[in-house]
Amino acid sequence: MPEISRDEVAHLADLARIDLDDAELDHLAPQLNVILESVASIRGVAGDDVPPTSHPIPLTNVFRDDVAVPCLTAEQALSGAPASEDQRFSVPRILGDEQ
Predict the structure, then answer these.
(1) How far is it, in rounded angstroms, from Cα 73 to Cα 86?
(2) For 16-52, how does the pLDDT look when each residue is reduced to its tens digit (9 = 90+)?
(3) Beta-carbon neighbour count of residue 31 at 10 Å?
(4) Residue in 47, 36, 46 with CA at minimum distance from that of residue 1
(5) pLDDT, position 18
């Protein structure tokens, strides 16, 4: 497996807009190589019969069912508004005529 050079770490840091000094670059390059070696070793363990997963334990949706329930009428919703027009909240214009 090819190693990440100090120059490549500097390039990645530049792309991420992270300012690293020389000591940090010298320290991070070997650490990134260890991470890449670890990922490569895990990749080698999984065979073709092991499907990729996002979580080791199967999860189910924990949200409640979407059930329609009675809600406010337009008049009730607008009753506390300082201004309304055509069953909508009326607010000051913040955009110019050009859109």
Answers:
(1) 14
(2) 999 999 999 999 999 999 998 888 887 777 677 777 7
(3) 11
(4) 36
(5) 94
pLDDT computed for residue 94 by the predictor: 86
- Which pair of tokens denotes residue 62? 């924990």
Q: Name the region of 43 (left: φ>0; alpha: ψ -120 to 50; beta: rest).
A: alpha
Tell me the helix, strand and coil percentages in the chain, rounded to 5.
Answer: 40, 5, 55
Residues counted in the chain: 99
User: Residue 53 corresponds to which tokens in the numbers above?
Assistant: 């997963």
Does residue 28 contact residue 20 with C-beta atoms inside 8 Å? Answer: yes
Tell me which residue has tokens 């999984």: 46
